[in-house]
Amino acid sequence: MNKCKEAARKMASLSVYKGILKRTVPAAFYRLLWAASSSTGTDGGIQEFLTAWGDFFAVLCERGYSESLTECVTQTALYDENAFSLAAAAGETDLPKTVMDAVERDLQIILDVSSITPQELIDSCAYAKDIAPLCLPQWKTGEPVAALRGNLKDCIPQMAEYYRGNGCGMYARYRAFIWRDHKIQPVAYPDKQTLSDLKGYELPRKMAIDNTLAFLQGYPANNCLLYGFPRIG
Q: For helices 69-79 and 24-36, what crossing angle results, to 10°?
């Protein structure tokens, strides 16, 4: 079995972290691996492979990760919402061994697959000689996110700690949200204005901060609604 086909099958077998296959870059890489693993050298097969290559490289560049595929793919694991990340975010640590074994297996697959270099992919596909003159654009693999560097068994507690501190899913990926269409939606590009930039309403600002801190510390707190412009003078 060539390396591309093995990697494609490994990605297909993801369980706890199967959600990363819905993310743009991993999904495009997954399609590229299957296109590269085809054993036929027909024009149709080559076209599918070249299209998959171009599509993948395009989205990788759009996300700003042409220098580090591994960082991009492992970051999707940080943001994935699954049985492990949800439990860790809630502070639960006593998950069944079957789940934790699957977590370790999935994370190893993610690390292995994302470290495949462009040349390794080309060399293991059936079209290596045909596509050599095309000088396809190439990416760099780079390093995984900090929580997944080092011994994998040590990394799993680091992942759990990340989820406890940052949440998972969209709550780990974004920092601002809005209520729209009867549901919470993330704000991808929130206003960078800070509380200290807003002048003229120090008293209500302090009340809002004190109320929020009380809520976070488990003390009595009120619902809070801010609206309109600050009254100056």
A: 130
148, 218: one domain: no
Separation CA 132–CA 153 (nearest Å): 40
97-114 helix and 24-36 helix, angle to the nearest 10 degrees: 70
DSSP one-letter string for 95-111 = --HHHHHHHHHHHHHHH
CA–centroid distance for 224 within its chain: 32
- Cα Rg of the chain (Å, integer): 23
> Taking the model in full, what pTM does it have?
0.78
Structural domain that includes position 57: 3-173
What pLDDT sits at residue 223? 81
* Alpha carbon 208 to chain centroid, angstroms: 33
Neighbours of 169 (CB within 10 A): 17
Residues of the chain where predicted confidence (pLDDT) is lower than 50? 232-233
